[in-house]
Automatic annotation (TrEMBL):
Domain of life, per lineage: Eukaryota
Protein name from the UniProt record: Sulfotransferase
GO molecular function: sulfotransferase activity
The Sulfotransferase domain, residue ranges: 11-271
Entry's EC annotation: 2.8.2.-
InterPro entries: P-loop_NTPase, Sulfotransferase_dom
Keywords for the protein's UniProt record, in alphabetical order: Transferase
Family that this chain belongs to: Belongs to the sulfotransferase 1 family.
Length: 274
């Protein structure tokens, strides 16, 4: 509500959107690196010393050094992130010409990733029962509303204004990261030049932001990002496996089939396949 009442969108804002556990950390790292690539060389890059979650602020998640006033102070064009459904966006932003990148992911992997994440951040809590959590996910209990509704809202926006909303899938990006780094640069209005292609700058971006590279950096392995009572967010919590299809190692075949069926029903007629 605070954001809806006070946030002032700017026409040149770039907004990175995802449901939690869909690859937000990766998208933040990629967007930051692509947009700032003329400012930093790869050997002394801020991502070597700063967690990717902290190089781009969330609009609605306020911690120590980001609040609405600080978002106001950022120079244009701002790059901001959000998990909010489109229907909850502040009017000034929803109606502006800001560019939006939406990253979605296959829901079985999202659920498994979230289950691990929540078990890790809840210190001193008994392990969350996988089956109970699964049934809640299926019923639509997710931090930002039912998983499918969130994705469909942005899918609809993408279909209405494709030049404003770039719609990406984690799995596609994992299989062809270079292709998507090139598309992101073009979408941000900073395409790679021929010289950059020849020098392999787009490949350097992929390497710097890869799961293997980021998860092995000390800055992303040691220490806490925030702490609130028994909720402890360690820097390493945002890096687990970074694989497609890990759900098979945690969910039964029946659970997988149940979630696939729900996804099929929810997305029916939309043209979107997850
Ligand atoms: P897994 O739990 O399946 O490994 P978010 O950033 O939205 O919280 O999503 C976290 C998920 O993205 C985790 O998935 C995490 O391992 C994965 N991830 C983090 N950094 C990544 C990267 N650089 N490349 C690919 N996946 C990454």
């Amino acid at each position: 509500m605070r954001l809806q009442n006070s946030f002032k969108g700017r026409p040149d804002d770039i907004i990175l959107v995802s449901n939690p556990k869909c690859g937000t950390t990766w998208l933040k790292a990629l967007a930051f690196t692509i947009i700032n690539r003329s400012r930093f060389d790869f050997d002394h890059h801020p991502l070597l010393t700063h967690h990717p979650q902290l190089v781009i602020p969330f609009m609605e998640i306020f911690n120590g050094n980001n609040d609405l006033n600080n978002l106001e102070k950022l120079p244009s064009p701002r790059i901001l992130a959000t998990h909010m459904p489109f229907s909850l966006w502040p009017e000034s932003l929803a109606r502006s010409s800001c560019r939006i990148v939406y990253l979605c992911r296959e829901p079985k992997d999202v659920f498994v990733s979230r289950w691990h994440f929540e078990n890790k951040i809840l210190v001193g809590h008994h392990k969350i029962d996988l089956e109970v959590a699964f049934n809640m996910f299926c019923e639509g209990f997710s931090p930002y509303g039912p998983f499918w509704d969130h994705t469909l809202e942005y899918w609809k926006e993408h279909n209405t204004t494709a030049d404003r909303v770039l719609f990406l899938k984690y799995e596609d990006m994992m299989s062809e990261p270079t292709k998507y780094v090139v598309s992101l640069a073009k979408f941000f209005g900073v395409p790679f030049s021929e010289k950059e292609h020849e020098d392999g700058v787009h490949e350097e971006v992929v390497r710097l932001c890869s799961f293997e590279n980021l998860s092995n950096l000390q800055i992303n392995q040691i220490g806490e990002m925030s702490r609130m009572k028994n909720l402890v967010l360690e820097r390493s919590t945002f890096f687990r496996k970074g694989k497609v299809g890990d759900w098979v190692n945690h969910m039964s075949h029946e659970m997988g089939k149940k979630l696939d069926k729900i996804t099929e029903e929810k997305l029916k007629g939309s043209g979107l396949v997850l």
